[in-house]
Design goal:
362 residues; alpha/beta; Rossmann fold; nine-stranded mixed sheet; two-stranded antiparallel ribbon; 12 helices; 11 strands; 31% helix; binds S-adenosylmethionine
Length: 362
């Protein structure tokens, strides 16, 4: 699919109605169309119009439509979500690399309906993380006899990566294919790596016992193959057919992942409140979907290192960019609503969400 094709598939809500449909638009002129500091680059407008200008992402944090009329343009139910997301998902796949991790925030049913679209564009499911906001989230507000179900206090943050292919082969297939080309028995890979049987067992397995070889072991296999493999087939394990792939290049073939000790896929954490919750001058919550900075830090730290590039296509108050910029990631984000965009700019300029610091009123 070309870039033009992707951009012509504009996300349109297909549900019956949108929030604020009957109200006059309150959107004001923005003071600026974009805002930048050393690490953060925030843009006012539709993210689809910006992807091509941003550096290729190592991390994408998607926190868009939930199908709950949560913001202007959100759909009224989950049925419209696949269409709402498709152009974005296609563009992410186009600009991402094998190093990219996508964190897809949504409700359970929202994610379930968009998952086939993510798979269609090559995003591979890794894990579903559950944000448990706890009982305080619904305290006293729910009549279960009316809603006829258990109260929902969760959201999901689902981790995806892109599987790279070399000459049309997945890494799993390519490793075995290249070794077989050498004419060497598979067990010789153990000798190459200096292990008893782990190399053949883990790196040549074609099922779910396959492991990505660590870079230094990959390079040992590659060197052994090029030294001892049939001369007429060299180079082995090459990406360009000229030079063999080295450890640094091999490391680029997968997304980073770091898990702090004790962290699981259930994240118990109340909704944002207190000082962190951004309010308007009249004391109202500025954005219903403001994400906690600590959860943003968690996913950013798990999937990137300082200097890496982060995208936040549905910025809101840009909690992802805020957390990413704090820790030296190069962040690009967009927000289509002028009020939210201005609030976010204020958040970055003052470094303090206290309403008395707001430079303007909404
Ligand atoms: C769920 S909220 C994001 C909240 C954000 N994570 C935070 O912590 O503040 C989604 C936001 O995406 C914005 N949005 C929706 N479609 C967009 C698009 N195509 N480009 C840019 N922003 C968009 C909405 O206006 C809304 O503010």
């Amino acid at each position: 699919m070309s870039q033009t094709d992707i951009l012509s598939v504009k996300p349109v809500p297909v549900s019956t109605f949108d929030i604020n449909m009957n109200k006059s638009q309150t959107i004001q002129e923005t003071k600026c169309k974009s805002w930048h500091n050393t690490y953060a680059h925030l843009y006012y407008g539709n993210s689809l119009d910006y992807y091509s200008q941003w550096e290729s992402p190592d991390v994408i944090i998607s926190d868009g439509a939930y199908g709950i009329l949560g913001f202007e343009g959100d759909t009224s139910d989950h049925c419209g979500l696949p269409q709402w997301y498709e152009a974005h998902v296609a563009a992410w796949a186009m600009y991402a690399t094998a190093k990219t991790t996508l964190w897809f925030w949504n409700s359970e049913i929202g994610w379930a309906t968009v998952h086939p679209v993510l798979e269609k564009y090559g995003w591979q499911y890794q894990n579903c993380n559950i944000w448990n906001k706890g009982i305080a989230h619904i305290a006293g507000n729910i009549n279960t006899q009316t809603i006829r179900r258990f109260p929902v206090v969760t959201e999901v943050c689902v981790q995806y990566t892109l599987e790279p292919k070399i000459n049309g082969l997945t890494l799993k297939k390519w490793l075995r294919y290249e070794w077989k080309r050498t004419g060497l028995p598979l067990r010789k890979a153990n000798e190459a790596c200096g292990v008893r049987d782990a190399a053949t067992r883990k790196y040549f397995d074609q099922g779910n016992l396959w492991y990505f070889p660590p870079a230094e072991l990959f390079e040992k296999m590659q060197k052994y193959a090029n030294l001892h493999g049939k001369p007429e087939g060299r180079p082995y394990f090459s990406l360009d057919g000229i030079t063999p792939c080295n450890a640094v290049q091999w490391e680029q073939m997968r997304a980073k992942f770091f898990c702090p000790h004790g962290v699981t896929n259930v994240w118990d954490r109340p909704p944002v409140s207190g000082k962190e919750r951004i309010k308007t001058l009249n004391g109202q919550v500025a954005h219903l979907n403001q994400k906690p900075l600590d959860l943003m830090r968690r996913i950013i730290d798990a999937s990137s290192t300082p200097g890496d590039v982060l995208w936040e296509p549905f910025g809101g108050l840009f909690s992802g960019c805020y957390a990413g910029a704090e820790s030296g990631r190069k962040c690009f984000g967009a927000e289509v609503n002028a009020d939210y965009f201005q609030l976010a700019v204020n958040r970055f300029e003052t470094g303090n969400p206290n309403p008395s610091n707001f430079l303007f009123q909404i």
